[in-house]
Design a protein that fits this description.
Length: 459
């Protein structure tokens, strides 16, 4: 997907006789007057002129600045950005009815690059009826089965499958350490040219089953990296197509993981009712077919959604179920893709729940345990946990401790190409904006501004 230059923004800037640097400086000054930290630089403005997306708050500040310069009201829509007053239209589910449809969709998606988030990215929605149809299709589906030993010019063996899984593991570690934006392009190329073609070759039933499982792992990771960079439409289409891939070999455990990912995304976007349904579908669809560690993950996703919806009783039940499942985590052999879900990861999920439920003491205790036990190689996860700890400390009225914790997160995460991590930071800045006159908050805002500027320089 190539970007078109933003002709409307270019026209308005020309009329206002303002340069990229000049606009960036005016926006920074306007944001500072509101107690908001803005990492806009001339490089940011250049990207917006070239058609990159923009966050809603940033678009609003830009519109205000240009309104003052021109002496008339300018809206984000006048600048070629999404009209913030108009809700985004629900997106069709696009659940592939056949395997060829799924493979065709995945091939097309692999030709698209993940776009920078636009002002409408966090307004991505899916119609409830489309979502229900997709979940029902997966729940009641019969497996397609593998077409083994068919004539083809190439024969695939387990060595090829191991290579794909090794590559998936490598890209997963890059994702954890640097965020989804770092490896998405290379992973997309690998999937398009090295993985998808192998699905149309000759293999035994054993190899074919393993091959489709490995392909689903790579496709799921592509979805996750797109989600992490803020391209929710692309992430969603990858996830639904990957869900269809799991149907081929009747992999209910991995299919439930995809439903859990869809729940995670819906919850992030504020669609809590959908997130609850998706997580519950994961739990029900995997019963008797998934390991205790996997079931703990699915129950944790349900708890996250219920907590965001404010249902303390149901969230508590789901959290207890997640912990009970995890107590038996070592009683079964887990697939490699689940190795990351350790006790620290579970604590990280649960501390989000306590924070969202405003259970202040529990939120701080659980978040601190998550921070203390998270392996530093999971840099993004550690950053998330530190930001949740900071928000929980703020709930307790511990302003200086909260800012210190958030500073550590920014120090360890300013190189993450993760839109989600950046949102955690900006959410925290909004929460402490009432204390903007406090020197520790001012220093923190400067730190964030410098970190965002470094990200601009690195791109």
């Amino acid at each position: 997907m190539s970007r078109e230059p933003n002709a409307q923004l270019i026209t308005v800037m020309d009329e206002a006789k303002v340069s990229n640097k000049g606009l960036a400086k005016r926006m920074q000054d306007a944001a500072a007057q509101r107690g908001v930290t803005l990492g806009t630089t001339h490089v940011s403005v250049k990207r917006w002129r070239e058609g990159a997306g923009i966050q809603p708050q940033t678009a609003a500040i830009m519109a205000d600045v240009l309104s003052i310069k021109l002496g008339r009201r300018i809206s984000p829509g006048d600048l070629g950005f999404f009209d913030l007053a108009r809700p985004a239209a629900p997106q069709p589910i696009g659940y592939p009815s056949t395997l060829p449809d799924a493979l065709s969709t995945l091939g097309g998606l692999a030709d698209e690059r993940s776009e920078a988030p636009s002002s409408s990215s966090d307004r991505f929605t899916v119609d409830d009826s489309d979502l229900s149809a997709a979940v029902l299709s997966w729940m009641i589906a019969r497996p397609d089965g593998i077409q083994a030993e068919r004539p083809a010019h190439q024969r695939v063996g387990m060595r090829d499958v191991r290579a794909i899984r090794d590559a998936a593991g490598m890209f997963m570690q890059l994702d954890f350490k640097y965020g989804g934006g770092h490896g998405h392009k290379a992973l997309r190329h690998y999937f398009r040219h090295e993985v998808l073609p192998l699905l149309d070759t000759s293999y035994s039933e054993k190899v074919g089953t393993a091959l489709f499982g490995a392909a689903a792992e790579v496709s799921q990771l592509l979805a996750w990296t797109a989600y992490d960079t803020g391209d929710h439409r692309l992430a969603y289409r990858y996830l639904t197509s990957t869900l269809r891939l799991t149907q081929v070999i009747d992999d209910r455990m991995f299919g439930a993981r995809i439903l859990g990912n869809l729940s995670h995304q819906a919850n992030y976007l504020g669609h809590h009712a959908q997130a609850i349904k998706l997580a519950r579908a994961a739990v029900e669809g995997a019963k008797g077919r998934a390991t205790p560690r996997a079931m703990a993950n699915y129950s944790a996703m349900e708890a996250r959604a219920l907590s965001n919806a404010g249902d303390r009783s149901a969230a508590g039940r789901a959290m207890n179920e997640a912990e009970r499942h995890f107590e038996r985590a070592d009683t079964a052999d887990d697939p490699t893709w689940l190795a990351y879900f350790d006790s620290a990861e579970l604590m990280g999920e649960l501390c989000h729940c306590y924070r969202d439920l405003k259970m202040r003491r529990e939120a701080v205790e659980q978040a601190q345990r998550a921070v203390n036990t998270t392996d530093p190689k999971y840099a993004r996860t550690l950053g998330f946990c530190r930001m949740v700890l900071a928000q929980s400390q703020l709930l307790n009225g511990e302003l200086e401790a909260a800012v210190t914790t958030a500073s550590l997160a920014v120090d360890g995460g300013d190189s993450l190409q993760s839109t989600r991590f950046q949102r955690y930071v900006t959410d925290f800045q909004t929460e402490v904006s009432a204390h903007s006159a406090n020197p520790v908050v001012a220093v923190f805002n400067d730190q964030v501004r410098e970190a965002l500027a470094r990200l601009d320089d690195d791109e």
